[in-house]
Specification:
By secondary structure, the protein is α/β, with parallel strands linked by helices. The chain contains 13 helices and eight strands. It has a six-stranded parallel beta sheet, with helices on both faces. It has a two-stranded antiparallel sheet with strand order 6-7.
């Protein structure tokens, strides 16, 4: 059936994809004269940051490095990074790393042009909901993971450890000017992080397929991302030097990021955000894997998107022709659980990420207040349903 939902499609990012694409930095027209390179604080990006700095120098562009990014960018970290960039006289940002680096860069881009503090511009929860009136500093995104797709979205997810919140800033002004997708930068990502990141991209594509704002274009991108991740994520986890798998996942993550930017996410994402807001050491992909099975058991039981889940099953090459949509949806869920088992994501030991004595009622209440559930989902999950999902997920 053709998806005739009305839509607009605005994706202004200049995407440069391919092995060795990072080298293009030395000859691309860039939006300033001095960059702040925002990257991880664990030393894993030091060599790449030095390489970026060298490539920029070939254009006589200066650079300062802010290497303090962790698992989830906190609002105070964003403010500190913005102050560093201002003190260094930087007029554009190179976000180098995963979604945390890119989201931090987006928060900085707002603060550096509009003043104040990052949390002033958060549009939900206890955020200040201040409008972005004076633009945003230009961003060049260089993802070194295949997961978040943040390089092609206009949303930044920001944590506030003081209030146990994980909320968003969004504006079309936050689209990157350039996204450099170089699969070679992902070859050394460890197995467990490859799994977390790939699963994050998988959920972006799936949620964009299922929710109300999906359309003919996002369906096409989502189904291709689901196909690629289903086929190549196990290979990349098994062998990080599998070039074909790494290239496929880099492309799939980018496609899924476009789906996320254009169609949005379902309530599965704020459900995970509640988990990682209370437990900041929990990687986003690990949290998504934790709630996935129980979440989709609830969704399938409501029978509102089982036809779409069957389409996802077909994209993964599953033999679902001639069976009911409910059976096709269950076939899909079982296949994803099998993939999770294969890549080490099924029933994770969450205590290693500090998940101890979770306040399930408080987390369910936090999610139940999210407008995402009402505005995006084709199904309805009330607080009782959310509590049930969290209880199942955290006790399995």
């Amino acid at each position: 059936m053709f998806n005739s939902n009305p839509f607009s499609f605005y994706s202004p990012v200049n995407i440069i994809y391919g092995k060795g694409a990072l080298n293009r930095l030395k000859d691309l027209k860039l939006p300033g004269t001095k960059a702040v390179i925002v990257t991880a604080g664990d030393g894993s990006m030091d060599a790449y940051a030095a390489r970026v700095k060298s490539l920029l120098a070939e254009q006589n562009i200066g650079a300062a490095v802010f290497a303090e990014i962790g698992t989830n960018p906190d609002t105070n970290l964003v403010d500190r990074a913005a102050a560093f960039a201002a003190a260094q006289g930087c007029d554009f940002i190179v976000a180098l790393g995963g979604g945390s680096s890119i989201d931090c860069a987006k928060g900085m881009a707002v603060v550096l042009k509009n003043g104040g503090k990052c949390w002033d511009y958060v549009v939900s929860g206890s955020g200040g909901r201040k409008p972005i009136t004076d633009g945003a500093l230009p961003i060049i995104a260089v993802p070194t993971t295949a997961g978040t797709g943040s390089e092609v979205s206009y949303v930044a997810v920001i944590s506030n450890e003081a209030t146990n919140e994980k909320q968003v800033i969004f504006s079309p002004l936050l689209f990157s000017k350039i996204a450099i997708i170089d699969p070679e930068l992902t070859y050394t990502v460890p197995k467990h992080l490859t799994a977390f990141q790939g699963f994050d991209a998988f959920t972006h594509a799936l949620e964009g397929l299922l929710i109300k704002k999906n359309n003919a274009v996002t369906d096409m991108y989502a189904l291709e991302a689901i196909r690629l991740i289903g086929e190549y994520l196990p290979r990349a986890v098994e062998n990080g030097r599998d070039e074909e798998a790494r290239c496929a996942l880099a492309a799939a993550s980018n496609l899924a990021g476009i789906v996320l930017a254009q169609a949005g996410s379902s309530s599965e994402h704020p459900l995970e955000h509640a988990l990682s807001a209370y437990f900041p050491r929990l990687p986003h992909g690990a949290g998504l894997a934790t709630v996935f099975e129980a979440y989709y058991e609830e969704v399938i039981a409501q029978d509102t998107v089982n036809d779409k889940l069957t389409r996802a099953a077909k994209a993964m090459g599953l033999p679902v022709d001639g069976i009911s949509d409910r059976d096709g949806a269950l076939c899909f869920l079982n296949a994803v659980v099998d993939m999770m088992q294969q890549i080490g994501l099924y029933r994770l030991d969450l205590t290693r990420y500090g998940v101890v004595d979770p306040d399930i009622d408080a987390m369910a209440e936090l999610v139940s207040q999210s407008g995402t559930i009402v505005n995006a989902d084709c199904w309805r999950l009330d607080k009782e349903s959310l509590t049930r999902i969290l209880t199942k997920s955290l006790s399995r």
